[in-house]
Amino acid sequence: MTVSVDHFATVAELARALGPDTRVLAGGTLVMRDVNYGQAGAARLAYTTDPALTEIRAEAGRIVLGAGVTMAAVSARPELSFLAPVARQIGGPAVRSMATVGGNLFAPHPYGDFATALLARDGVAEMADGAARPLADLLARRAARPGFVRAVSLARPQTGEFRFRKVSRVKPKGVSVMSMAAWLPGAAGRITGARVAYGAMAEPPVRVAPVERALEGAALAAAAIARATAAATEGLNPPDDALASGWYRRETAPVHLRRLLEERAG
């Protein structure tokens, strides 16, 4: 199957050109693999060199990452130090120099570790048409190709509020058996507004409301952690794949969640 490649000067031009036969090309870490194996599912690739896609800026307590920002760029920016450990666990140096924030949002299971972290950071997708969509909604509908993501806005955490854990067969760069991210803001020693997300435990990355409820209003101590781990897989049906069975994921998720909540946060 022949695949054409078209360049557009701006995000707006690319967004107008999108259709059911078009896939967006950014870093290409997954798209080009599909093209090489004849599995692109589209006759056309579209890309843009609009510099707006690689911007990183701060806005009213939030950080905005352009969809074209790479994992290597995330790792290199001091103001993104809370996300750097997540970015550094995505592939090796060659992959991190190409893999993008926007591409990771649409990376299928078992990929999407960075999307999991953004989901736990109360992420909001800024679309090319100017709309703002919560990441939970975007991820749930991503198979329908809901539009072009221009940037992602996320809450900036205080020191010690955010933590991330990746479980893989090959250390430290393997594909995830599961990933977990937690944002645990608080006041007076109590958690307020807990956000917990899993990757590779469903398609796509998901927030885990039962765990969030178990932590809300509590001190991060043994009793609250026990309640959270008891609810670790409530309402989830983890997938079977070549990495692990759904049964294995269900059985081990409480263990990894407990370790995540007990570890020293960055």
Quick summary:
By secondary structure, this protein is of the alpha+beta class. Helices cover 30% and strands 23% of the residues. It has helices spanning 11-17, 31-36, 71-76, 84-87, 93-96, 101-105, 113-120, 135-140, 209-215, 222-230, 246-262; strands at 4-8, 22-24, 44-48, 56-59, 62-66, 124-127, 132-134, 149-155, 162-168, 176-183, 186-187, 190-191, 195-199, 206-207.
Write the layout of secondary structure elements.
Blueprint: E1 4-8, H1 11-17, E2 22-24, H2 31-36, E3 44-48, E4 56-59, E5 62-66, H3 71-76, H4 84-87, H5 93-96, H6 101-105, H7 113-120, E6 124-127, E7 132-134, H8 135-140, E8 149-155, E9 162-168, E10 176-183, E11 186-187, E12 190-191, E13 195-199, E14 206-207, H9 209-215, H10 222-230, H11 246-262
Parallel strand pairs: 1-3, 2-3
Antiparallel strand pairs: 4-5, 5-8, 6-7, 6-8, 9-10, 10-13, 11-12, 13-14
Helix pairs in contact: 9-10, 10-11
H/E element order: EHEHEEEHHHHHEEHEEEEEEEHHH
Briefly note the structural class of the backbone. alpha+beta
CATH hierarchy: architecture of the largest domain? 2-Layer Sandwich
Instruction: Report Rg.
Output: 18 Å
Question: Number of helix segments?
Answer: 11
